[in-house]
Design goal:
TIM Barrel; single chain; 10 helices; 298 residues; alpha/beta; 12 strands
Length: 298
């Protein structure tokens, strides 16, 4: 199992350069990956959390991180596909993959902030259908010299598209969400499943379902990757839930180790830990404690 760190671009950190600095620290401490999140407006729960504080753009922050790091992988947890034009997004991701030396992991999802969809003029009811279509369009744009794609919302043909991603055939597509539709999307399009706040029991059940669906779709489930983002808090007091039902890394070092072992036994390939704070020192201290006192004991 690998360890990633969630860069708090969604927590209201005032100076975006501090986010890049955290990614550099994560790489130095031995994290395998860093991840950013996406919202375009301060919608619903985002507005409640941030007020007037900034939510920095995911791909801009990842681009800056790519230029400041050498080996850490660059993940999105997750980009909301229905908000993006596939040709523009495809070019941005391919450029970032080239710039970073092939380090992009593209986590994608559909989001649930209806007010944000309304503000963007995107039909909330068709977000799943749009996401499936965009995934197909991206695959065509990245693998065909002159992409041919015809869908309900997007059509391409007759023009070359470049650059292509450095990774072949393209950066791993990690499908977010925990719904039945998300699991079907993994089976159809995904190179892996990237979900949030699932307990070890919930994750294991979802993984089994995805394996079944992938086999039914005629694909080999052995190639899929499984990653999970969880909040982490060193509280010093035992968690209230049994280990198999926990949805956060909390408690003492030993409690967190116990929870991580449960995820590893459930088949998780990568745990992404995040600190729900805009305090840069708090993030740095949590990263150091995790990698120096917790991770070596697994």
């Amino acid at each position: 199992m690998r360890a990633g760190f969630g860069i708090p671009n969604n927590q209201g950190v005032e100076n975006p350069n501090d986010l890049v600095g955290l990614a550099v620290t994560a790489e130095q401490l031995g994290f395998s990956s860093v991840w950013v999140r996406e919202h375009l407006f301060h919608a619903t729960y985002v507005a409640e959390r941030l007020g007037d504080k900034p939510y920095h753009d995911a791909l801009t922050i990842l681009t800056a991180i790519a230029c400041a790091t050498k080996s850490v992988r660059l993940g999105t947890s997750v980009l909301v596909l229905p908000w993006h034009d596939p040709a523009r997004l495809g070019k941005m991701i391919a450029t970032l993959d080239q710039l970073s030396g092939g380090r992009v992991d593209l986590g994608v999802g559909v989001a649930t902030t209806r007010d944000e969809f309304e503000n963007l003029g995107v039909d909330f009811a068709t977000r799943g259908k749009r996401t499936d279509e965009i995934l197909g369009a991206l695959q065509a744009l990245w693998t065909q010299d002159t992409p041919q794609f015809t869908g309900e919302f997007y059509r391409y043909g007759g023009l070359k598209f470049s650059p292509k991603p450095l990774q072949t055939p393209y950066p791993p597509l990690l499908i977010g969400g925990s719904s039945a539709a998300a699991r079907r999307r993994v089976a159809r399009f995904g190179d892996g499943w990237h979900t949030l706040r699932q307990s070890p029991n919930q994750f294991a059940e979802g993984r089994r379902d995805i394996i079944r669906l992938t086999e039914a779709a005629g694909r080999d489930p052995a190639v899929l990757r499984y990653s999970l983002t969880l909040p982490m808090r060193f509280t010093g007091t035992p968690p209230g839930a049994p280990v198999q039902d926990r949805t956060a890394l909390t408690g003492t070092d030993d409690d967190i180790i116990e929870t991580l072992r449960a995820y590893r036994s459930a088949g998780l390939d990568e745990i992404v830990v995040s600190v729900s704070s805009a305090d840069v020192n708090c993030n740095s201290d949590a990263m150091a404690r995790f990698m120096q006192q917790v991770w070596p004991k697994l």
